[in-house]
Design brief:
Structural class: alpha/beta
Shape: globular
Number of helices: 17
Radius of gyration: 22 Å
Strand order of the largest sheet: 3-4-2-1-5-6-7-8
CATH topology of the largest domain: Rossmann fold
Number of domains: 2
Largest sheet: 8 strands, mixed
Strand content: 15-25%
Distance between the termini: 10 Å
Helix content: 40-55%
CATH superfamily of the largest domain: Glycogen Phosphorylase B
CATH architecture of the largest domain: 3-Layer(aba) Sandwich
Low-confidence stretches: none
């Protein structure tokens, strides 16, 4: 028992992993690296496909990377953007992972992510074979809730409704449920599971030092040279995200000042819808190419304030990771989304920005005009953002909590089995 706790083993299940550069794959890759640094023996079961390029295969089937053992399950090049293909990917991956896990030596801990959706269903089988393993779920997004929020009906809706019954059963097999925000916690608790619950957020992929921030130029000149204040939306603009209220804000701002600009650098399945809407926008709105990862930190530093959004009905289903990226580079946030969501709560609690709705546009316009004339207030908001990130949301902070949580739960489980 002593040796196992001193050098415990953990298996991670996630659809996409190194060398994929999609954000969630980068998070799980860093997650595995950080566990290894903290003395864990880590193996990862993943797929042999890239998230955004499903026809591209990743080789080899097995490898060791950064001290992490990686095993890739082959799957067909089914496109994740298609609902039925996504269901097929899910059940294919769960079958492949189950076979692998039944063949491999038992790990002390098994951690499941939420890609593919419904990954938690693997517990319906594993609970009968690997019960001495600690079962942990890191819930990035909720399924089938995301399917319902997206308005799916017909066959997809029927499948999702049926799977919700199985998800509830699987949740009751968990030892630890890790959510990423208070709204998500409330949705999960409605399932009535008995696992230990904890909130541990996904950190920012770019964590510049204070010295790097000090050396950064005033970003508004990098993105839009004629502006005195630049508001930047950088990231995915998908089904869970809103942009309409930002365009309303742009119209209202333009009536008062032509020196406050909104700049969008985005991709996602609502991108074309957004580009179509630009035709009726004033000249203080601009779209620029999406930034590659090596350019991401410079892009984030290039603005004065960041824009983050979540559509009504999606609160607690997803938490936009760009919020943490904004705080990490010391930038305040304008958040367009439900007032009772986790991000809205954090903004108010740590004084790191503004919460936007259609009703608050006039007040926000005045706040931004005041910031334009009061750079000291803008600087203070940026300091608050940077300090809040490193006190509550940084990679080191979150990973120290992960290590403490898993070791404590392991010791508890050993005590129960002795």
């Amino acid at each position: 028992m002593t040796n196992s706790v001193a050098k415990p083993s953990v298996t991670l299940l996630y659809h996409f992993f190194y060398p994929d550069d999609v954000v969630s794959a980068r998070h799980f890759s860093q997650f595995a690296e950080e566990l290894t640094r903290r003395g864990w023996r880590v193996q990862v079961l993943t797929s042999n496909r890239f998230c955004r390029y499903p026809r591209r295969k990743i080789s080899p089937k097995e490898e060791e990377w950064q001290g992490i053992r990686i095993k890739r399950v082959w799957r067909a090049p089914w496109d994740q953007a298609r609902s039925l293909a996504r269901f097929a990917n899910t059940f294919w991956m769960l079958a492949g992972w189950t076979i692998q896990l039944l063949r491999l030596p038992k790990s002390d801990v098994l951690i499941m992510g939420t890609d593919p959706p419904f990954s938690i269903l693997i517990l319906l089988v594993l609970q009968f074979f690997k019960r001495k393993t600690l079962f942990v779920h890191w819930c990035y997004d909720l399924y089938p809730e995301a399917i319902f929020a997206d308005g799916f009906k017909g066959m997809v809706g029927w499948i999702a409704a049926g799977l919700k019954v199985l998800v509830k059963q699987a949740y009751h097999s968990l030892d630890v449920m890790v959510d990423i925000g208070s709204c998500m916690r409330r949705r999960l608790e409605a399932y009535g599971y008995h696992a230990h619950s904890q909130t541990l957020v996904p950190w920012a992929l770019a964590e510049p030092t204070l010295e790097e921030l000090r050396r950064a130029q005033n970003g508004s000149r990098h993105v839009e040279g004629a502006s005195t204040l630049t508001l930047l939306y950088s990231g995915n603009i998908g089904k869970a995200h809103d942009f309409e209220v930002f365009l309303e804000l742009a119209h209202s701002l333009y009536e008062k000042s032509d020196k406050i600009h909104l700049v969008f650098s985005c991709r996602g399945n609502r991108l074309q819808e957004f580009l179509n809407a630009l035709s009726s926008c004033p000249p203080n709105v601009k779209s620029i190419p999406f930034a590659d990862e090596e350019d991401l930190q410079g892009r984030l530093l290039s603005a004065d304030i960041h824009l983050v959004s979540l559509r009504k009905g999606w609160e607690g289903i997803v938490v936009p990771s760009k919020f943490f990226g904004s705080l990490a580079v010391g930038k305040p946030v304008i958040y367009a989304g439900p007032m009772d969501s986790a991000i809205a709560s954090w903004i108010r609690q740590y004084d790191v920005g503004f919460v936007l709705s259609g009703e608050t546009i006039p007040k926000l316009v005045q706040d931004l005009l005041d910031l334009e004339k009061n750079p000291e207030r803008l600087h203070k908001l940026g300091q608050n953002a940077y300090n809040a990130y490193h006190q509550f949301f940084s990679k080191k902070r979150v990973m120290d909590q992960w290590d403490e949580l898993l070791r404590a739960e392991l010791l508890k489980s050993y005590g129960e089995t002795e």
